[in-house]
Amino acid sequence: MVLDQRMKSDKPHPCNSDVVSLNLSGNLLCCWEDVASITKQLEGLQELQLSDNRLCIPADPQNLAHAFINLRVLALNSTAVICGRKQTEVPICPSTHVISIQVLRCAPMWPLLEELYVCENEITELHRPKNVLQNLKVLDLSKNSLAGGNELLNIAELPRLEKLNLSSTGLSTLQFNDVGPGCKTAMFPALKFMSLDDNAISEWSVVNELEKLASLQQLSCHRNPLIEQDRTPETTRQLFIARIGQLQVLNKSEVMREERKGAELDYCKMFCVMWLGSGGNRDPELDRPSGEFVEQHPRFQSLIRSEQSTHGLRAQTVIVRAGTPAVNKPSEEQRSQALDSFLLDQGWETYW
Q1: Coiled-coil segments, which residues (predicted)?
Q2: pLDDT over 50 at 182, yes or no
Q3: Which residues, 6 or more positions from 195, have their beta carbon under 8 angstroms from its beta carbon?
Q4: Most C-beta atoms within 10 A of its C-beta, which of 126, 224, 245, 346?
């Protein structure tokens, strides 16, 4: 699209009504008024790219909303590099607080925005959106500095957010404190996809927290220390699948029904000795696994009870082959007692 003098008219040109996407990245634009003078001519505009520009907050953002009335997608990537601005100017993306101050102050301009991309902006803090961005479905925060997972809680109430990209943010922890292990959080109620590639995640507790997300179906978690631990890629994938019950796609690979069944079975076999050693018991009245075990393996109880109920077996009759590997094995005495409980008349075969 060629932007010529016709764009300066107050009335839209007939040819402009067909324009739905506009890329103004890297054009040295300095204020939203200049952007609005262009976009108000494009009545059908739905996607706008403004990356690599320096944009100062307008005095009254609501006044410019008519120029972005149909905007659904907005890219503001790499706008943190501000040079030569006046001291009185406030850029859209300084080194911190992008989502909390600058973007939120500008957000009244985009009443119908559904996708927001703010990559590589040196964002370190997130603040709660109030009465803005409530239609947001996609948020890309990749390549920012959000090592503390607590920052995410400030955007956890976005009611329609379905996709969240947190790749390359230094994220190492994540915790939804409103509910305990095995329960579903009220946070991120619509979130279906999350990308956590290239972060510092090294503990399975983070994966357990993801299980609390009621709508999560797709996860990408490449190149994290957790993936590089002393396990085969196949075993690591199994542990992800077993720990997140509703996961349908992991690292762009669909989780098939048989794969899930095998992953959950192997997971129970891997940790059953630890479960019994912590106080678990196949008699429901005596079944009291420790709080530490429940916290580390919040799905374990439900997996065993679900499988046993499905196949009509008596409570917690799980038979495990001798020598099944266990993580963080209990003492030999505990192990012996656990195996004695598991080895029933049917022999060594595993039954579900």
Answers
A1: none
A2: yes
A3: 142, 164, 165, 166, 167, 219, 220
A4: 126
